[in-house]
Amino acid sequence: MILNIMSSNPTTAIEMPLENEAPLEIVRMPAARRLKLSVDPRSGAVKLVMPKRAALGPALEWVKGQQGWISAQLAKLPDPWPIAPDMMVPFAGQQLRLDWSPQHSVLPRCVDDRIVMGGAEDMITARLLRWLRREAVKTLTAETREIARAAGISVAKIGVGDPRSRWGSCASNGDIRYSWRLILAPAFVRRATVAHEVAHRVHMNHSPAFHAQVQLLFGEDPAQARHWLRHNGARLHWFGRDV
Question: What is the pTM of this model?
Fold first, then answer.
C-alpha cells in the first residue's frame, strides 16, 4: 500500500506491506482526538485521520490491524463502469445507446434514443466524457437560470467540475459549481440539486428556512432526491473507469 501523508508538510510516500493495494491517505488534523479510518466510495481511497502530534508508527500498526474491515469496505465499492460501443449511457434522465462507428461524425450527438459518435475506437471514453461534461454545463446552466429567474434570485457564474465529495457548491459572490456527473443522474435528482444551490443564494446555511426555500424552488420535497444520491451517487463516480 502507498501512503500519501497529507499535512502542513510536503506530501511524501511510504511503502507499507499490507494485504490490499488501495492507496492510503494520512491526514493530520489539529482538531482530531483519535485515529479515524474511512474508505471513500467514490475513489476507493482509504483515509486515516490522526491527531497532529500523534506518532506515525503506532498509527500504521493500528491500520494493519484493520485490514479485515478495510477489505470488507472495499468489497462494497461499485464495480468499474467502462465505456464501450452499444452500452447504455444514462444521460439527462434517459438511457441512450452508445452508437459508435468509424463512419459516424467524430462529434457525439443525440439522435432519438442514441448517442451517435465516430472517430478512433481508443478515443471513445475520452471523447464521450468531454461531451458529457459540455452537455452538463449547458443543462445545469439553463436549469439554474430558469429556477433562479422564476424566484427572482440572482446568480453569478455557473460551472462544473468533478469534486469527490460535493454535488454542488455556492460561493458568497453568487458563483455556483456542480459535479458534471449530475448529467448521469435522473432529472429530478439533478433539479433538486440545482434548487439546493440556488437556495443558498438566499440562505448561506442549512437552517430550516433554507430547507423550506429548497422545497419551494424545487416544487416538492427533495428527500427522494437526497435518498437517491446517498444510495446511488457513488456509482456515478465510477462511470468511465476500467478499474
Answer: 0.84
